[in-house]
Amino acid sequence: MRKINKPVLKAAVVYPVCIATVGNSELRGRLEHCQTLINNAEIEFEAKITKGQIYTIAREIIVNGNVTYKELKNVYTAQMVQKPKGRVYYDQLLMAAPGGLCPLCSHREATTLDHYLPKSKYPRLSIVPINLIPSCKDCNTGKLADYPIGPNDETLHPYYDNIENVMWLNAIVNKTAPVSLSFNVKAPASWSNLLTNRVTTHLDCFKLNILYAAQAARRLSGMKYNLEKIYSSGAAQAGIEKYLVDEAASNAQVNLNSWETAMFRALSEDHWFCSTGFRLIG
Fold first, then answer.
1. Do 143 and 17 belong together in one domain?
2. What domain of life is recorded for the organism (predicted)?
3. What is the per-residue pLDDT across 238-248, written as a single tens digit (0 to 9) for each?
4. How crowded is residue 94: how many other Cβ atoms within 10 Å of its Cβ?
5. Largest CB tally within 10 Å, which of 8, 26, 67, 200?
6. pTM for the whole thing?
7. CA nearest 59: which of 35, 32, 41?
8. Selection from 210, 231, 238, 245 nearest residue 278 by Cα
9. What is the residue range of 99's domain?
């Protein structure tokens, strides 16, 4: 996961602009009376997201006694995504993705906004900027309407969680034919149990271990010729180890916890792979 600066946009600015373009005056009036509740929902989210308490936010289907969750969801879909005045804020949030990549998986292009807490369960947060994260389509649709029921169920939030500067993504070399890799969390000693569980939940929720394993398999296939060439040149195992160490160091300069960094690090440290195992690459 990649850290993103928290948006300066507030619901007090975004929400009035979005509901101003609602054509039905009766509906617009009911939505206007939700403004304070929307602002308070933003304050509650902010207060709880860093404390492992986001799961305590109440779910609801009716807001202020007369606004349905579908009506508030539609403020996001029809007024923020589709209408020009609201779309300005949508695009501003989307463009915050580092290098245009989804911060949730650090792999695919960010093309949409993901609701950290789903709008179908938490309609007050439908257009609250700190609940909207730039993401790829797969991360957005893969999570669907999942929501945390306990602190360990909370995924990482790119606006609030920063785990970029410590190594935690671990790759395991599977001595199979063909050789493969799997990925998991290797928590630093400084991490709390809660943070470790949340990072693990993040990988599981967005199926990143599956994504990274598939990408590693493709990358391995493209390495086989080069590894055989290095080995046969006389450099043998030491030459392969050096090549892999250099690749790990190079990728770490870009992202300490990318699947590439973890893969090359694991391969370089595996004597079986560097001596003979590389010949089992598919």
1. yes
2. Bacteria
3. 999 999 999 99
4. 18
5. 67
6. 0.91
7. 41
8. 231
9. 11-153
